[in-house]
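[Discussion] Sanity-checking designs against the backbone

I'm trying to build intuition for which residues belong where. Below is a structure token string of 329 positions. I'd appreciate it if someone posts a full sequence so I can compare it with mine line by line.
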């Protein structure tokens, strides 16, 4: 059975029936998808499963502290077949990238996700669009499977929970988030150390790139919309990779009076990747969806073809249309 609420029992059954399991993270991987996959690997291995981790993109250096992260492989490097492919935190099939190849190489398919826009593209789907982080669903799943919490699993889960709640600041953060945090602390979570790595330090290329993003900042609609752009040349000048721009959209959103922010970046393959953010209660996922993307109400994304200026114009127009009342607040 599948539904728009979590379904750990169905996923549990699929896992119990499998011996070899391929766990997949989404392209442009973040703390929640990588934390979900590494926690799952540790839990499933403790149950005697053979687990393989896949991601179609490089895992950001910032997440290199995650236990078992070195096991990630590109889907092209796998022979399969697997008894089960399990997608974690992947809002739609396109976000699997080449991991989609693994679907045809697996006997069964399942996913655990927390994006309300998820079209339930697997055989067994456990989707809870209200969960503040996918790692909270992973913790529920591990309990269902009877996996004991460990310090290593706590490190993985904290990474997803803290990053997807904006370090416990987004409106999605709820009492359960802190209840789970209490459990993780009891298992020896090195909170201060991880918090520094995730939220209080940036690499030098990240700092330089922030300067470029701020240089490009433009405001529209009386400052309600903030727009930033990063060219391939900007990345080269800063010695930066695409992953180094991952949280920079927030710099625009931090402006007082700004309700929506966009960061467009050239990805080097002719495509433009956009990060869209909004301040609660303004919703942005409808704008992303209208352009073919998706995500969460206040944090969404989309990738478009075209030049940086043209593509940014399209996203901006969609936002202005929404502001003018052609979309919901
Ligand atoms: P980010 O801006 O950090 O890359 O993405 C923000 C959120 O939007 C994430 O939850 C991510 O999964 C989702 N997202 C980003 N790009 C896309 C996209 O092209 N399609 C869909 N459906 N979701 C996306
Ligand atoms: Mn997530």
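Best answer:
Here's mine. Compare freely.
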């Amino acid at each position: 059975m599948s539904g728009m609420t979590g379904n750990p029992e169905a996923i549990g059954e699929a896992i119990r029936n499998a011996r070899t399991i391929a766990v997949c993270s989404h392209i442009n991987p973040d703390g929640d998808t990588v934390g979900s996959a590494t926690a799952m690997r540790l839990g499933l291995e403790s149950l005697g499963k053979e687990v393989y981790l896949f991601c179609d993109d490089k895992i950001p250096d910032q997440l290199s502290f995650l236990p078992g992260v070195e096991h990630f492989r590109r889907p092209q490097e796998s022979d399969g077949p697997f008894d089960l492919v399990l997608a974690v935190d992947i809002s739609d099939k396109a976000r699997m990238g080449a991991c989609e190849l693994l679907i045809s190489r697996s006997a069964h398919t399942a996913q655990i996700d927390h994006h309300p826009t998820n079209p339930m593209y697997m055989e067994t789907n456990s989707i809870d669009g209200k969960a503040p982080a996918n790692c909270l669903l992973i913790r529920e799943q591990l309990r269902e499977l009877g996996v004991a919490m460990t310090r290593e699993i706590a490190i993985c889960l904290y990474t997803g929970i803290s990053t997807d709640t904006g370090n416990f600041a987004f409106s999605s953060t709820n009492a359960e988030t802190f209840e789970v945090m209490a459990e993780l602390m009891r298992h020896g979570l090195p909170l201060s150390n991880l918090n520094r790595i995730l939220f209080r330090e940036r690499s030098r290329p990240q700092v330089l790139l922030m300067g470029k993003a701020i240089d490009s900042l433009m405001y529209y609609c009386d400052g309600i919309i903030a727009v930033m752009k990063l060219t391939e040349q900007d990345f080269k000048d800063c010695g930066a990779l695409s992953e180094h721009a991952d949280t920079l959209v927030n710099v625009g959103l931090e402006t007082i009076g700004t309700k929506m922010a966009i960061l467009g970046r050239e990805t080097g393959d002719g495509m433009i990747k956009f990060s869209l953010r909004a301040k609660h209660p303004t919703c942005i996922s409808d704008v992303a969806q209208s352009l073919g993307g998706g995500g969460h109400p206040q944090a969404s994304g989309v990738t478009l073809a075209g030049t940086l200026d043209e593509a940014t114009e399209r996203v901006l127009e969609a936002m202005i249309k929404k502001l003018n009342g052609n979309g919901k607040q």
